[in-house]
Specification:
It is a single chain. With 259 residues, the protein is mainly beta. The protein has a single domain (15-257), classed as Porin. The chain is built from two helices and eleven strands, in the order E-E-H-E-E-E-E-H-E-E-E-E-E. It has helices at 48-53, 138-142, and strands at residues 23-32, 36-45, 65-76, 79-92, 103-117, 122-137, 150-164, 168-179, 196-205, 219-230, 250-257. It has an eleven-stranded antiparallel sheet with strand order 1-2-3-4-5-6-7-8-9-10-11. The longest helix is centred in the N-terminal third of the chain and has 6 residues, at 48-53. It is globular.
Length: 259
């Protein structure tokens, strides 16, 4: 739903969303009876060479970060339903110094997807995901970068999209983040809170549709607007300096292509 760049959505999110291009990993999966699916694997830091070459930054993972996912899929005529569980654990050493305790993150989530696919011009999809994260901030507390030794963070996202002829699309998304108050981690919040919610509206145009013969024509032009109802714990004056949540609203016009 989101463009491949930009600062849309909550200002803080579980670690599983934040490692991005700075890690590499491998997973294995199996499917039973074309309905039950299981996947497991692990991720590791990119080498310094590749992190620099890709301008990906350093994820500072300590050792391997295991990931797993289980889900069930059911197709009834043009309707496809999926629901599942996923988990991720990461130990992070942001200082890069040996011998220090790590900050440990334990993520577990629920997700569900619905698709309407009848072979006609109309495609409807809906996606929902909820993530709960437990944070043991051993290193951050030791270095004065947190006021609590442990925090929690909860993230919920829902979006519904409609496409016509795989050319014209519209998406509505809702997001919410809640979690523990921490005067140091969220020092830029007047309430020391990560609590944020809002909506994302997007319209898209694929001028060439979806071309498998000429993948260079897989071009998308999109306009996305992110609206914040609450930002870091407050609707008004969230930073103590008079800034309202609405001041963080963003509008992006983007051009995207893939091969």
């Amino acid at each position: 739903m989101a463009p491949p760049f930009g600062n849309s959505g909550p200002p803080v999110s579980p670690v599983i969303y934040n490692l991005g291009q700075s890690v590499v990993g491998a997973t294995a999966y199996t499917m039973i009876d074309n309905s039950w699916y299981a996947e497991a694997g692990a991720y590791h830091n990119l080498s310094t060479y590749w992190a620099n070459a890709l301008h990906a930054g350093n994820a500072s993972l300590q050792g391997e970060a295991p990931y797993w996912r289980l889900w069930y899929s059911k197709t009834v005529g043009p309707h496809v339903f999926e629901a599942g569980l996923l988990g991720f654990d990461a130990r992070i050493n942001t200082s890069g110094l040996p011998g220090l305790p790590t900050d440990d993150y334990h993520d577990i989530g629920l997700d569900a997807t619905y698709q309407f696919l009848n072979g006609g011009p109309n495609i409807i999809t809906a996606n929902a995901i909820y993530m709960h994260e437990r944070q043991n901030l051993n290193q951050a507390l030791l270095q004065g970068n947190a006021s609590n030794g442990s925090n929690t963070l909860n993230s919920a996202n829902l979006n519904v999209a409609y496409w016509r002829d795989n050319t014209y699309g519209a998406t509505l998304g809702l997001f919410q983040t809640t979690g523990s108050s921490d005067a140091v981690v969220y020092a830029n919040s007047r309430t020391n809170s990560p609590n944020t919610n809002g909506a994302i509206f997007e319209i898209d145009w694929n001028p060439f549709g979806k071309s498998w013969v000429n993948p260079e024509k897989n071009l998308r032009i999109g306009l996305q607007y992110t609206l914040y109802n609450k930002y870091l714990g407050a609707k008004t004056n969230f930073d103590g300096a008079g800034t309202n949540a609405s001041a963080m609203n963003t509008l992006y016009l983007y051009l995207w292509t893939a091969i």
